[in-house]
Design brief:
The protein is 13% helix and 50% strand. The protein is mainly beta. It has an eight-stranded antiparallel β-barrel. The longest helix is centred in the C-terminal third of the chain and has 11 residues, at 151-161.
């Protein structure tokens, strides 16, 4: 199932995200492992590669996103990221990045994986938790969320490169992002659902009662 299909089913009481971006920044361990294998991090347009505090990052603009009144939702990005080996040109592109999370706080990043051996196969590539996420009056924020490589993604990388640069269970990157809500909470209703429950914390965070 494509990322578009995951975000197009009807839902009631969903608040639309207006704009924003999410960044995946390689951990030191992941950067060292990729360097040993001659693999570089690249971006799938319109995402871009930037450096933050000495870490290679892919910044992806929001494609669409929704937050329900019960604090579930979805965040989907434009573009994606690519891992490319400089020696032989082998690569794996991860497109249609979509992050979802269940009510238990356990989340997954799904992507269409495109390589010489796979053509858009939808794969659960990374896992995360909702720690570091908060919903405020005007925006949704996520900070310093480790993204852990799944077994399916490690197996896919092994097929593409001969061996996976990181084993399953290792953190590939740290995710951060900020997304603006449409100006008025009242009347802001999205036609698509999400599955991303957001923990509302901090002095300015919304409560379930405030959204009721």
């Amino acid at each position: 199932m494509s990322a578009t299909a995951r975000t197009s089913a009807p839902a009631s009481g969903a608040l639309a995200l207006r704009d924003g971006e999410i960044a995946y920044c390689l951990t030191d361990r992941a950067a060292n492992a990729l360097e040993r294998e001659g693999i570089v991090l690249d971006a799938v347009a319109p995402a871009t590669v930037r450096t933050r505090d000495g870490h290679a990052c892919v910044q992806m603009p929001l494609r669409e996103g929704y937050v329900r009144l019960d604090l579930t939702g979805v965040v989907a990005a434009q573009g994606g990221f690519s891992l490319r080996r400089t020696g032989d040109g082998r690569s794996a592109d991860f497109e249609d990045i979509t992050g979802t999370i269940g009510l238990d706080g356990a989340g997954v990043v799904s992507a269409g994986v495109v390589s010489a051996r796979r053509h858009g196969a939808d794969t659960r590539v990374l896992t995360f938790t909702n720690a570091g996420m908060a919903l405020f009056l005007t925006e949704l924020r996520g900070r310093d969320m480790p993204l852990t490589l799944t077994e399916a993604c490690a197996d896919s990388l092994a097929r593409d490169f001969g061996t996976s640069p990181l084993p399953a269970g290792e953190d590939l990157a740290i995710a951060s992002g900020t997304f603006r809500l449409l100006p008025a909470l009242t009347g802001n209703r999205a036609s698509a659902p999400g599955r991303l429950p957001l923990r509302c914390d901090g002095p300015n965070g919304l409560s379930r009662q405030a959204l009721a």
